[in-house]
Prior knowledge:
Layout: H1 3-34, H2 36-47, H3 60-74, H4 80-91, E1 98-99, H5 103-106, E2 111-112, H6 119-125, H7 137-152
Amino acid sequence: xxxxxxxxxxxxxxxxxxxxxxxxxxxxxxxxxxxxxxxxxxxxxxxxxxxxxxxxxxxxxxxxxxxxxxxxxxxxxxxxxxxxxxxxxxxxxxxxxxxxxxxxxxxxxxxxxxxxxxxxxxxxxxxxxxxxxxxxxxxxxxxxxxxxxxxxxxxxxxxxxx
Length: 162
């Protein structure tokens, strides 16, 4: 391809990108003017999202972050990724999950909660300052991480049923 044609293509590509960026910018600037009523109506809804007592979002991300905060205060090792990986494997993020079919269930002590903890383990590794309810997401995560730290060094070292 001749150099002159290559130059024109570069110039035309640059021109198209400039027009696209300018058009996008104009659209973004126009949105508040066009939808001002709906934008202001949406603001209060965003501020009323459910939160935990500690102020974290009342969802999986918030529960993990709140647990990590408690764990940091108590010297319990673990990372967000390690906790998340194990929660997804154990309960798919359902804090009310209960396993009624495995060997623990057959013994009358089913695994419960986000990290599928049995009652004796939860009671032995419960962390002061968290709920005593095994189904409480933060209490379940923190107790399970405390157990995993004692047994495996960290929840980060758990890659299967524990």
